[in-house]
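subagent[fold] <- orchestrator: predict structure for attached chain, return C-alpha coordinates only, no commentary.
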Amino acid sequence: MSEHGPDGAPRDAEQATPDLRAPGRRPRTGSRTASRTASRTGGTLAFVESPVQLLNVLEWAHADAQQPSAQGESTGDLTIVVLSPLDPMSRGQLRRVAQLARDEGHSVRWEEARGGAAAPLKTIGALTGDLRRARRVVIGDPFSRYVQLLLTITRARDLVVVDDGTATMEFIAQLARGERLVRWHRRGGRPSPRDLAFAPFARTAVRRLTPGTAGSVEVFSAMPVDEIPPGVRLTPNTFAWTRARFGPPRLTRGADLVGTSLVETGVVDPARYLSAVKSLARTHNATRYFAHRRESAEKLHELASATGLEIVRPDLPLELIARRGPIGRTILSFPSTVVHTLPLALAGTKVEVAVCDIDPSWLTENASPRAEGFLSGVTGTARDVRRVSSTGSA
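subagent[fold] -> orchestrator:
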Protein backbone atom coordinates (compact mmCIF):
# COMPACT_ATOMS: atom_id res chain seq x y z
CA MET A 1 0.00 0.00 0.00
CA SER A 2 1.45 3.36 -1.02
CA GLU A 3 0.97 5.20 2.23
CA HIS A 4 3.07 8.00 3.68
CA GLY A 5 2.51 7.28 7.33
CA PRO A 6 1.43 4.49 9.71
CA ASP A 7 -2.05 5.96 10.17
CA GLY A 8 -2.72 6.16 6.44
CA ALA A 9 -2.16 9.93 6.33
CA PRO A 10 0.62 11.49 4.29
CA ARG A 11 3.70 11.77 6.47
CA ASP A 12 3.91 15.18 8.16
CA ALA A 13 0.51 15.98 6.69
CA GLU A 14 -0.01 18.72 9.25
CA GLN A 15 3.28 20.48 8.55
CA ALA A 16 4.22 19.71 4.96
CA THR A 17 3.48 22.35 2.34
CA PRO A 18 5.27 21.02 -0.76
CA ASP A 19 5.87 23.14 -3.85
CA LEU A 20 2.86 22.28 -5.99
CA ARG A 21 3.29 25.12 -8.43
CA ALA A 22 3.64 24.52 -12.12
CA PRO A 23 7.23 24.93 -13.41
CA GLY A 24 8.22 28.57 -13.64
CA ARG A 25 5.16 29.81 -11.78
CA ARG A 26 5.66 32.05 -8.77
CA PRO A 27 3.16 32.44 -5.98
CA ARG A 28 1.11 35.60 -5.89
CA THR A 29 1.76 37.89 -2.99
CA GLY A 30 -0.42 39.92 -0.72
CA SER A 31 -2.37 37.21 1.17
CA ARG A 32 -1.87 38.88 4.53
CA THR A 33 -2.91 42.27 3.17
CA ALA A 34 -5.95 40.71 1.52
CA SER A 35 -6.97 39.16 4.82
CA ARG A 36 -6.77 42.50 6.64
CA THR A 37 -8.68 44.24 3.85
CA ALA A 38 -11.41 41.62 3.88
CA SER A 39 -11.81 41.99 7.62
CA ARG A 40 -12.19 45.77 7.39
CA THR A 41 -14.41 46.13 4.34
CA GLY A 42 -16.33 42.87 4.13
CA GLY A 43 -15.36 40.99 1.01
CA THR A 44 -15.98 37.31 0.42
CA LEU A 45 -15.83 34.55 3.02
CA ALA A 46 -15.69 30.90 1.90
CA PHE A 47 -16.30 28.01 4.31
CA VAL A 48 -14.95 24.57 3.40
CA GLU A 49 -14.81 21.26 5.23
CA SER A 50 -13.21 18.99 2.61
CA PRO A 51 -10.41 19.14 0.02
CA VAL A 52 -12.90 18.89 -2.86
CA GLN A 53 -14.84 21.88 -1.57
CA LEU A 54 -11.63 23.89 -1.30
CA LEU A 55 -10.60 22.94 -4.85
CA ASN A 56 -13.99 24.07 -6.13
CA VAL A 57 -13.70 27.38 -4.29
CA LEU A 58 -10.47 27.94 -6.23
CA GLU A 59 -12.27 27.05 -9.47
CA TRP A 60 -15.09 29.46 -8.58
CA ALA A 61 -12.67 32.29 -7.75
CA HIS A 62 -10.92 31.76 -11.09
CA ALA A 63 -14.22 31.80 -13.00
CA ASP A 64 -15.58 34.75 -11.01
CA ALA A 65 -12.51 36.83 -11.85
CA GLN A 66 -13.25 36.36 -15.56
CA GLN A 67 -16.77 37.80 -15.30
CA PRO A 68 -17.40 41.32 -16.66
CA SER A 69 -18.97 42.25 -13.31
CA ALA A 70 -15.64 41.47 -11.61
CA GLN A 71 -13.75 44.17 -13.52
CA GLY A 72 -12.27 46.62 -11.11
CA GLU A 73 -12.62 44.18 -8.22
CA SER A 74 -9.86 41.98 -6.86
CA THR A 75 -10.28 38.34 -5.95
CA GLY A 76 -7.75 39.11 -3.24
CA ASP A 77 -10.68 39.94 -0.95
CA LEU A 78 -11.46 36.20 -0.73
CA THR A 79 -10.80 34.69 2.69
CA ILE A 80 -11.13 30.91 2.86
CA VAL A 81 -12.05 29.48 6.27
CA VAL A 82 -11.22 25.81 6.71
CA LEU A 83 -13.53 24.17 9.25
CA SER A 84 -11.08 21.37 9.81
CA PRO A 85 -12.30 17.77 10.02
CA LEU A 86 -10.67 15.24 12.33
CA ASP A 87 -9.56 12.44 10.00
CA PRO A 88 -5.87 12.62 9.01
CA MET A 89 -6.37 12.03 5.28
CA SER A 90 -8.77 14.94 4.88
CA ARG A 91 -6.57 17.21 6.97
CA GLY A 92 -3.50 16.33 4.94
CA GLN A 93 -5.22 17.01 1.62
CA LEU A 94 -6.70 20.25 2.96
CA ARG A 95 -3.25 21.48 4.02
CA ARG A 96 -1.93 20.90 0.50
CA VAL A 97 -4.84 22.52 -1.33
CA ALA A 98 -4.68 25.40 1.15
CA GLN A 99 -1.11 26.02 0.01
CA LEU A 100 -2.34 26.22 -3.58
CA ALA A 101 -4.92 28.79 -2.45
CA ARG A 102 -2.20 30.88 -0.81
CA ASP A 103 -0.14 30.65 -4.00
CA GLU A 104 -3.11 32.22 -5.79
CA GLY A 105 -3.05 35.15 -3.39
CA HIS A 106 -6.02 34.14 -1.24
CA SER A 107 -6.05 34.27 2.53
CA VAL A 108 -6.61 30.95 4.29
CA ARG A 109 -7.77 30.73 7.89
CA TRP A 110 -7.55 27.33 9.57
CA GLU A 111 -10.09 26.67 12.33
CA GLU A 112 -9.92 23.60 14.59
CA ALA A 113 -13.70 23.55 14.44
CA ARG A 114 -14.05 20.06 15.89
CA GLY A 115 -11.21 20.01 18.39
CA GLY A 116 -13.23 19.30 21.51
CA ALA A 117 -16.65 20.01 22.98
CA ALA A 118 -16.07 23.75 23.22
CA ALA A 119 -14.58 24.09 19.73
CA PRO A 120 -17.82 24.86 17.83
CA LEU A 121 -18.80 27.71 20.15
CA LYS A 122 -15.27 29.10 20.09
CA THR A 123 -15.10 28.90 16.29
CA ILE A 124 -18.51 30.51 15.75
CA GLY A 125 -17.67 33.27 18.20
CA ALA A 126 -14.41 34.00 16.39
CA LEU A 127 -16.15 34.12 13.01
CA THR A 128 -19.24 36.15 13.92
CA GLY A 129 -17.73 39.57 13.24
CA ASP A 130 -16.37 38.60 9.82
CA LEU A 131 -19.64 36.87 8.94
CA ARG A 132 -21.66 39.99 9.64
CA ARG A 133 -19.29 42.18 7.61
CA ALA A 134 -19.01 39.85 4.60
CA ARG A 135 -20.67 41.00 1.37
CA ARG A 136 -20.66 37.50 -0.08
CA VAL A 137 -20.47 34.02 1.48
CA VAL A 138 -19.37 30.87 -0.34
CA ILE A 139 -20.19 27.44 1.11
CA GLY A 140 -19.23 23.94 0.08
CA ASP A 141 -21.75 21.80 1.97
CA PRO A 142 -25.27 23.13 2.51
CA PHE A 143 -26.15 19.88 4.34
CA SER A 144 -23.56 20.61 7.04
CA ARG A 145 -25.08 21.68 10.35
CA TYR A 146 -22.00 23.76 10.98
CA VAL A 147 -22.56 25.68 7.74
CA GLN A 148 -26.30 25.97 8.32
CA LEU A 149 -25.62 27.55 11.70
CA LEU A 150 -23.19 30.03 10.13
CA LEU A 151 -25.82 30.97 7.55
CA THR A 152 -28.13 32.12 10.33
CA ILE A 153 -25.49 34.65 11.42
CA THR A 154 -24.36 36.20 8.15
CA ARG A 155 -25.92 39.32 6.69
CA ALA A 156 -24.34 38.76 3.28
CA ARG A 157 -26.67 39.58 0.40
CA ASP A 158 -25.04 37.12 -1.99
CA LEU A 159 -24.57 33.40 -1.33
CA VAL A 160 -22.65 30.95 -3.49
CA VAL A 161 -22.77 27.15 -3.23
CA VAL A 162 -19.84 25.28 -4.77
CA ASP A 163 -19.76 21.56 -5.40
CA ASP A 164 -19.42 19.08 -2.57
CA GLY A 165 -19.54 16.22 -5.04
CA THR A 166 -22.71 14.50 -6.16
CA ALA A 167 -24.51 15.78 -3.04
CA THR A 168 -24.93 19.05 -4.93
CA MET A 169 -27.40 17.31 -7.27
CA GLU A 170 -29.55 16.29 -4.30
CA PHE A 171 -29.28 19.71 -2.68
CA ILE A 172 -30.58 21.52 -5.77
CA ALA A 173 -33.43 19.02 -6.23
CA GLN A 174 -34.51 19.33 -2.57
CA LEU A 175 -34.29 23.12 -2.68
CA ALA A 176 -36.42 23.19 -5.85
CA ARG A 177 -39.06 21.01 -4.17
CA GLY A 178 -39.02 23.00 -0.94
CA GLU A 179 -37.92 19.99 1.12
CA ARG A 180 -35.74 19.94 4.20
CA LEU A 181 -32.12 19.18 3.41
CA VAL A 182 -31.30 15.49 4.01
CA ARG A 183 -28.31 13.62 2.60
CA TRP A 184 -29.30 10.98 0.07
CA HIS A 185 -27.70 8.04 1.91
CA ARG A 186 -29.55 8.70 5.18
CA ARG A 187 -32.57 6.54 5.85
CA GLY A 188 -35.93 8.18 6.36
CA GLY A 189 -37.97 7.95 9.53
CA ARG A 190 -38.78 10.15 12.45
CA PRO A 191 -36.32 12.97 13.18
CA SER A 192 -34.04 12.39 16.15
CA PRO A 193 -34.11 14.68 19.21
CA ARG A 194 -30.97 16.30 17.84
CA ASP A 195 -32.70 16.89 14.49
CA LEU A 196 -35.66 18.49 16.25
CA ALA A 197 -33.42 20.75 18.33
CA PHE A 198 -31.55 21.94 15.25
CA ALA A 199 -34.66 22.27 13.05
CA PRO A 200 -35.12 26.07 13.52
CA PHE A 201 -31.55 26.71 12.34
CA ALA A 202 -31.99 24.35 9.38
CA ARG A 203 -35.19 26.13 8.32
CA THR A 204 -33.46 29.52 8.52
CA ALA A 205 -30.57 28.19 6.42
CA VAL A 206 -32.98 26.95 3.75
CA ARG A 207 -34.65 30.37 3.66
CA ARG A 208 -31.24 32.01 3.22
CA LEU A 209 -30.51 29.63 0.34
CA THR A 210 -33.81 30.45 -1.34
CA PRO A 211 -33.47 33.49 -3.64
CA GLY A 212 -35.58 36.49 -2.77
CA THR A 213 -35.51 40.24 -2.49
CA ALA A 214 -32.78 40.10 0.15
CA GLY A 215 -30.03 38.89 -2.22
CA SER A 216 -28.88 36.37 -4.79
CA VAL A 217 -27.98 32.68 -4.77
CA GLU A 218 -25.48 31.18 -7.17
CA VAL A 219 -24.67 27.47 -7.58
CA PHE A 220 -21.26 26.79 -9.12
CA SER A 221 -21.31 23.17 -10.21
CA ALA A 222 -19.87 20.57 -12.56
CA MET A 223 -22.86 18.32 -11.81
CA PRO A 224 -25.82 17.88 -14.18
CA VAL A 225 -28.87 19.72 -12.90
CA ASP A 226 -32.46 19.06 -14.01
CA GLU A 227 -34.39 21.19 -11.54
CA ILE A 228 -33.18 24.71 -11.02
CA PRO A 229 -35.03 26.61 -8.28
CA PRO A 230 -36.52 29.90 -9.48
CA GLY A 231 -34.06 32.73 -9.05
CA VAL A 232 -30.98 30.52 -8.58
CA ARG A 233 -28.14 31.33 -10.96
CA LEU A 234 -26.32 28.21 -12.17
CA THR A 235 -22.69 28.68 -13.25
CA PRO A 236 -20.91 25.70 -14.83
CA ASN A 237 -17.63 24.56 -13.32
CA THR A 238 -15.39 23.58 -16.24
CA PHE A 239 -12.24 23.04 -14.15
CA ALA A 240 -10.53 25.77 -16.14
CA TRP A 241 -8.21 26.65 -13.23
CA THR A 242 -7.04 23.04 -12.83
CA ARG A 243 -6.36 22.68 -16.56
CA ALA A 244 -4.48 25.97 -16.70
CA ARG A 245 -2.46 25.16 -13.58
CA PHE A 246 -1.38 21.55 -14.21
CA GLY A 247 -0.67 19.08 -16.98
CA PRO A 248 -1.18 17.67 -19.44
CA PRO A 249 -0.32 14.42 -17.63
CA ARG A 250 1.97 11.63 -18.72
CA LEU A 251 -0.09 8.50 -19.43
CA THR A 252 0.73 4.99 -18.28
CA ARG A 253 -0.12 1.83 -20.18
CA GLY A 254 -2.44 0.30 -17.60
CA ALA A 255 -5.77 1.35 -16.10
CA ASP A 256 -6.39 2.98 -12.73
CA LEU A 257 -9.37 2.25 -10.49
CA VAL A 258 -10.99 4.89 -8.25
CA GLY A 259 -12.26 3.76 -4.87
CA THR A 260 -15.47 4.76 -3.15
CA SER A 261 -16.67 5.08 0.44
CA LEU A 262 -20.05 3.43 -0.28
CA VAL A 263 -19.07 0.53 1.99
CA GLU A 264 -18.14 2.88 4.82
CA THR A 265 -21.45 4.75 4.54
CA GLY A 266 -23.36 1.45 4.77
CA VAL A 267 -24.76 1.56 1.23
CA VAL A 268 -22.87 -1.32 -0.42
CA ASP A 269 -22.09 -4.77 0.97
CA PRO A 270 -18.32 -5.21 1.56
CA ALA A 271 -18.12 -8.68 -0.03
CA ARG A 272 -19.98 -7.53 -3.13
CA TYR A 273 -17.70 -4.53 -3.44
CA LEU A 274 -14.55 -6.64 -3.14
CA SER A 275 -15.81 -9.03 -5.80
CA ALA A 276 -16.63 -6.16 -8.16
CA VAL A 277 -13.19 -4.58 -7.73
CA LYS A 278 -11.51 -7.93 -8.45
CA SER A 279 -13.56 -8.38 -11.61
CA LEU A 280 -12.88 -4.85 -12.88
CA ALA A 281 -9.15 -5.08 -12.16
CA ARG A 282 -8.86 -8.40 -13.98
CA THR A 283 -10.97 -7.40 -16.98
CA HIS A 284 -9.38 -3.99 -17.56
CA ASN A 285 -5.78 -4.71 -16.51
CA ALA A 286 -5.91 -2.19 -13.68
CA THR A 287 -2.72 -1.76 -11.68
CA ARG A 288 -3.52 0.96 -9.15
CA TYR A 289 -6.42 1.69 -6.80
CA PHE A 290 -6.83 5.32 -5.74
CA ALA A 291 -8.45 5.10 -2.33
CA HIS A 292 -11.18 7.45 -1.21
CA ARG A 293 -10.02 9.41 1.82
CA ARG A 294 -12.76 7.82 3.97
CA GLU A 295 -11.97 4.19 3.10
CA SER A 296 -10.81 2.15 6.07
CA ALA A 297 -7.30 0.74 6.30
CA GLU A 298 -8.68 -2.75 6.96
CA LYS A 299 -10.75 -2.72 3.79
CA LEU A 300 -7.84 -1.43 1.71
CA HIS A 301 -5.48 -4.13 3.03
CA GLU A 302 -8.06 -6.76 2.09
CA LEU A 303 -8.41 -5.27 -1.39
CA ALA A 304 -4.64 -5.26 -1.90
CA SER A 305 -4.33 -8.89 -0.79
CA ALA A 306 -7.23 -10.10 -2.93
CA THR A 307 -6.50 -8.15 -6.12
CA GLY A 308 -2.79 -7.39 -6.21
CA LEU A 309 -3.62 -3.75 -6.88
CA GLU A 310 -1.26 -1.06 -5.64
CA ILE A 311 -3.27 0.95 -3.13
CA VAL A 312 -2.57 4.67 -3.40
CA ARG A 313 -3.80 7.20 -0.85
CA PRO A 314 -3.77 10.51 -2.78
CA ASP A 315 -2.46 13.60 -1.01
CA LEU A 316 -4.61 15.86 -3.22
CA PRO A 317 -8.10 15.63 -4.74
CA LEU A 318 -8.13 13.16 -7.61
CA GLU A 319 -8.81 15.85 -10.22
CA LEU A 320 -5.41 17.38 -9.38
CA ILE A 321 -3.67 14.01 -9.09
CA ALA A 322 -4.94 12.97 -12.53
CA ARG A 323 -4.08 16.28 -14.15
CA ARG A 324 -0.55 16.26 -12.76
CA GLY A 325 -0.04 12.59 -13.72
CA PRO A 326 1.17 10.03 -14.35
CA ILE A 327 -2.28 8.51 -14.82
CA GLY A 328 -3.70 5.47 -16.61
CA ARG A 329 -5.13 5.74 -20.09
CA THR A 330 -8.36 4.40 -18.61
CA ILE A 331 -9.78 5.48 -15.24
CA LEU A 332 -12.45 3.14 -13.84
CA SER A 333 -14.91 4.37 -11.26
CA PHE A 334 -18.13 3.43 -9.53
CA PRO A 335 -20.88 6.10 -9.42
CA SER A 336 -19.25 9.09 -7.78
CA THR A 337 -18.30 12.70 -8.27
CA VAL A 338 -15.28 11.89 -10.43
CA VAL A 339 -17.35 10.49 -13.32
CA HIS A 340 -18.52 14.09 -13.78
CA THR A 341 -15.37 16.01 -12.86
CA LEU A 342 -12.54 13.95 -14.37
CA PRO A 343 -13.73 14.31 -17.99
CA LEU A 344 -13.66 18.08 -17.46
CA ALA A 345 -10.30 18.17 -15.69
CA LEU A 346 -8.76 15.85 -18.32
CA ALA A 347 -10.31 17.52 -21.36
CA GLY A 348 -7.85 17.56 -24.24
CA THR A 349 -5.98 14.46 -23.06
CA LYS A 350 -6.40 10.89 -24.29
CA VAL A 351 -7.60 9.58 -20.93
CA GLU A 352 -10.89 7.66 -21.01
CA VAL A 353 -13.14 7.63 -17.95
CA ALA A 354 -15.33 4.54 -17.50
CA VAL A 355 -18.07 4.01 -14.92
CA CYS A 356 -19.41 0.75 -13.50
CA ASP A 357 -23.00 0.76 -12.22
CA ILE A 358 -23.83 -0.39 -8.70
CA ASP A 359 -25.98 -3.50 -9.09
CA PRO A 360 -29.06 -3.34 -6.83
CA SER A 361 -28.05 -6.70 -5.34
CA TRP A 362 -24.94 -5.04 -3.87
CA LEU A 363 -26.97 -2.71 -1.65
CA THR A 364 -27.23 -3.50 2.04
CA GLU A 365 -30.53 -3.86 3.87
CA ASN A 366 -29.67 -0.64 5.70
CA ALA A 367 -29.25 1.38 2.51
CA SER A 368 -31.58 4.33 2.06
CA PRO A 369 -34.59 3.66 -0.18
CA ARG A 370 -33.30 6.51 -2.34
CA ALA A 371 -29.86 4.95 -2.83
CA GLU A 372 -30.56 2.88 -5.94
CA GLY A 373 -32.23 5.70 -7.83
CA PHE A 374 -29.66 8.28 -6.80
CA LEU A 375 -26.66 6.14 -7.79
CA SER A 376 -28.31 5.23 -11.09
CA GLY A 377 -28.85 8.93 -11.76
CA VAL A 378 -25.21 9.73 -11.04
CA THR A 379 -24.14 7.22 -13.68
CA GLY A 380 -26.88 7.94 -16.20
CA THR A 381 -26.23 11.69 -16.28
CA ALA A 382 -22.45 11.43 -16.65
CA ARG A 383 -21.11 12.94 -19.86
CA ASP A 384 -18.15 11.75 -21.93
CA VAL A 385 -17.75 8.46 -20.04
CA ARG A 386 -17.92 4.84 -21.11
CA ARG A 387 -20.28 2.44 -19.33
CA VAL A 388 -18.79 -0.86 -18.21
CA SER A 389 -20.24 -3.77 -16.27
CA SER A 390 -18.97 -6.04 -13.56
CA THR A 391 -19.89 -9.68 -13.09
CA GLY A 392 -18.61 -9.67 -9.53
CA SER A 393 -20.66 -11.56 -6.94
CA ALA A 394 -20.21 -12.43 -3.34
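orchestrator: received. Logging for downstream: The chain has two domains: 31-242, 247-388. Confidence is low (pLDDT under 50) at residues 2-19, 21-41.
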